[in-house]
Structure formats: C-alpha cells, structure tokens
Amino acid sequence: DSRITALDLSEDQLANARSYCGDNKGIVFQQYDLYGGQPLPAGFDLAIATEVFLHHPDQAVRQFIKRILDSARYIASIDWCEEWQTPVSHHVWIHNYRALYKGAGFASASFVIPEKIDGKQQRLFLAGRSLPESVRCLERVVGHYTRDATEPSWDIVTQTPRSSWPANWDG
C-alpha cells in the first residue's frame, strides 16, 4: 500500500495534477502554503520538491527543509544548480543546496540531471538525517561520469550567484 499526498499553493496546478492522475484513490491533493505555518502531513518516506526552492530566499528554504524533514524521512529536490552567465529574474535564487542541507543539519547527495533543460543544468538532491552508504556510492560513481557539470563556485554559504547583480534587474 502506498499513498501520495500532493501539495501545491496553486489550486490550478492541483487541478492539472488531478487530471493526469485520473481516479487513483491512493492520491490526495491539498492546497498548501509553505509560509502559512500549518503543519505538514506526517509519516512519509519521501517528500519530492521539483523547482520549488528556487523561488524562495535561502533563509526560507532552510526553514522549509527542516519542516519537511520533520514530516518525511528524505527529501528529493530537483532545481537549477550551475554558474549563470547572466542575471536571473528577481523571483529566482540559485542556491548552494549542499550548504543549505548541511547548515540545517542534514546529509545530502547530489546528482547531475543528464540532459539540460533550456540550456540550464539541473541537479537532483537527496537529503535526510542520514543517507545509506549505497547513496554515497552511487553519488561517487555517477559523479565520475558527469565531471564536466560542475557546481557553482559559491562566495559564502548563504550567497546566491545573483547577489552581485543590480537589484532592479528584472530579466
């Protein structure tokens, strides 16, 4: 028996997801605001966040990570993670996820997504209070084959690469 709880702030996105899932009784859809303070549903093995964290500043992401890992054993998140050659929009942050997970007291592993999307590199991050050694081994093996995709060079733990661009740039 598996169960899925799909959370999103947007009722439109939830309706879209419902249309893809059909009549599956194992999926519950709920509107949820990460900033709202209400508790997350608990007792899950895995929480999946796809391009969620990139829309929030690091202080908020750090809090989200802690709250999520109070409700689930692991987080799998997919987000952009590379040096950007141009400024990013004001509503986008390119985070140092390794530092965010470590700063929140969690272990993490990183895997390059093999194909770039719109010319941008994404990574899959797995995090939890601890990770099995098999995940660490997989990270080393996959990392050997994806050496060309480097992580950004971060100035400090909490800084995103966009910090040096003008605040009014709205690309």
Q: Can you give a write-up of this model?
A:
Strand 3, helix 2 (58-71) and strand 4 (72-80) form a beta-alpha-beta unit. The protein is α/β, with parallel strands linked by helices. The longest helix is centred in the middle third of the chain and has 14 residues, at 58-71. Strands 3-4-6-5 form a four-stranded mixed beta sheet. It contains four helices and six strands.
**SS element count, helices:** 4
Poorly predicted ranges: 156-171
Shape: globular
Give the proportion of residues in helices. Answer: 25-40%
Order of helices and strands: EHEEHEHEEH
Radius of gyration, in Å, reads: 17 Å
What's the main sheet like? 4 strands, mixed
Main β-sheet, spatial strand arrangement: 3-4-6-5
Distance between the termini: 46 Å
Average pLDDT, rounded to a whole number, is 82
- The assigned structural class equals alpha/beta
Question: How many β-strand stretches?
Answer: 6
Strand content: 15-25%
Characteristic terms for this protein:
single chain, 171 residues, alpha/beta, four-stranded mixed β-sheet, two-stranded parallel sheet, globular, disordered C terminus
Short structural summary:
With 171 residues, the chain is α/β, with parallel strands linked by helices.
Record the SSE blueprint:
Elements: E1 4-8, H1 11-21, E2 27-31, E3 44-50, H2 58-71, E4 72-80, H3 97-103, E5 107-112, E6 122-128, H4 133-145
Parallel strand pairs: 1-2, 3-4
Antiparallel strand pairs: 4-6, 5-6
